[in-house]
Design goal:
- By secondary structure, this protein is an all-alpha fold.
- The protein has a domain at about 20-120.
- It has helices spanning about 5-15, 20-50, 55-75, 75-85, 90-105, 110-120, 120-145.
- α5 (about 90-105) packs across α7.
- The longest helix is centred in the N-terminal third of the chain and has 28 residues, at about 20-50.
Length: about 150
């Protein structure tokens, strides 16, 4: 069967199901917004308990990473992601999911070659570039003065 690129594209368009774009955008917005609202509620709660702003921010980060990892381990995060799509890519919970999911997937291969090695397949570059950026930032502070 010989087809031109244009004919092939038209064929694919006919076979492809219509994407409910606005429904997907709405779900992603609602779930991503809900995750952020929970983070803000946690921040307000930690501040009301007397934590300083930076300590409260750290507590919120730790809590969201823990909850993201726990929900991934229980298989709930995947269900939320299937429903909300990109809405679950809020950086802190998405990062926890990206670390835990490969670790769970490869745990049967053993502690070191499976869980420990695969845990950072997705998260590794984030950590590497984050550490690299912080080193450059630290050097810049030393060279140009720390305010």
């Amino acid at each position: 069967m010989d087809m031109t690129n244009a004919e092939y594209n038209e064929y694919v368009k006919k076979k492809q199901p219509a994407s409910p774009l606005w429904a997907d955008v709405g779900k992603a917005f609602a779930v991503g917004g809900a995750i952020c609202a929970v983070g803000q509620a946690l921040m307000n709660g930690f501040l009301s308990r007397g934590l300083a702003r930076d300590e409260a921010g750290t507590a919120v980060s730790l809590t969201l990473v823990f909850v993201g990892a726990l929900l991934t381990g229980l298989g709930v995060y995947d269900d939320i992601a299937r429903f909300a799509g990109a809405g679950t890519l809020v950086p802190i919970t998405g990062f926890a999911n990206s670390v835990v999911a490969p670790a769970l997937e490869f745990k049967r291969e053993g502690l070191i070659p499976g869980t420990a090695a695969k845990m950072f397949t997705i998260a590794g570059p984030v950590i590497v570039y984050g550490v690299g950026a912080s080193i450059l930032y630290g050097i810049a502070l030393v060279l140009f003065g720390a305010g």
